[in-house]
Amino acid sequence: MARTQPVDRWDTDFDVLDAGYIANPFSIWDQLRTTCPVAHSDRRGSTWLPTRYEDVVALAHDVEHFSSLEVAVIPFDGDEPEDPVLLYGLPPISADPPLHTWTRRLLLPWFSHHRVEGYEELTRKLCVDLIHGFEADGHADAAVDYAQQIPARVIARILGVPPDLADTFTGWVRDVLEFADDPERRVHGVDGLLTFFTEEVERRRTEPGDDLLSELLHAEVDGTPVEESVVLGMAALVLIAGVDTTWSAIGSSLWHLATHPDDRARLVAEPSLMPLAVEELLRAYSPVTMARVVTADVEFEGCPMKAGDKLLMNFPAANRDPEAFDDADRVVLDRALNRHVAFGSGIHRCAGSNLARMELRIALEEWLARIPDFHLSDQAEVTWAGGQVRGPRILPVVFA
Amino acid sequence: MKIRVDPDKCQGHARCYALAPDLFVVDDYGQSTVIGDGAVPEALEDKARLAIANCPEYAIEEIAN
Fold it and tell me: pTM for the complete prediction?
């Protein structure tokens, strides 16, 4: 588990791995917004935590002062390898322009509306099969048996790697994101991912397929092939960014529907609300926080940010800001004015946002069509993960 | 009513396309543009306003009404 000391002062000594914060960050953000909207902590290096929508969006757009070269919310606490495989990190997410620009252009078409429609049938069948596996039991772990199983398999299809490795992928991704403050697990996850993708890349040099990995390997940018280190970084990114995040959004949405019978009944009765409801659930339970590194001393809202400081792009808190959203702490399924930034803001807008939305929508549609009435079997058994990605990890529900 | 998408502000969230697919097209890179000259049929004005109100980048503008 996370190594944390109790927090007394959220404005000067916050800890995003604090168990109370992971379970309920909302009241802490509400308090900070009115007293100290950009909090600070020295617990994992000097780090700033904005909580207002306006501030988070302004910081996300200032890519000159706030670089994406370090996006991990929990910094790596072990020895860096002497001979790193990923010379450029995970572009485009951990890159600034110009590397960001051309790697993003290579990736985006794979997650366009048009392409994502092509993955819809596969996703729907996957969801139906998963539900068939437990619907007769009258109970399930909506996180482990359902939410967690979906994104890894869809991503496997896009990358062109075997879907039966989904559980292995999930393990690596959790090691990298969720257990990031445990150096042994982080190294285990990174090594697993890189060894796997290095072998997959070698195989595709001689046997290319119609998948993302093959295309990246054979792509040319300005007449030059893409370096293998960039290809590996991009492949690892697609897996890391495409698994925990969407699974957490599906899990949080099911948690909401399990604990809010009025919303659940309304969504069952009015399925046409689903597109707006998906946006609202993304707003209220935004899973992802990213980090930035300050490139040069700068003052922001009276805060003296120093070069090398870390900044947490607190998109989840921005989306709960009452200055930006009426009744911000309430889920309004048909909310009409909803400029949420669950997928970020500015040039690093989540490249997989179309895919994530589709997966969330289909996962909820298929669940509600078969299991319209469900609730938590025991509130006390529910566990949440947090830090970079927030969502339920154990979510036992019962249904008729 | 007439609208346009500011190409420098659009970051490809595609909220406009999801809410009003009759008014916008989105290319492979997520870049959104209005269909035709951006003139909005009266029956779609509510949808156009919904798209404007949901763009996280404030990239959609009403240029005439």
Answer: 0.96
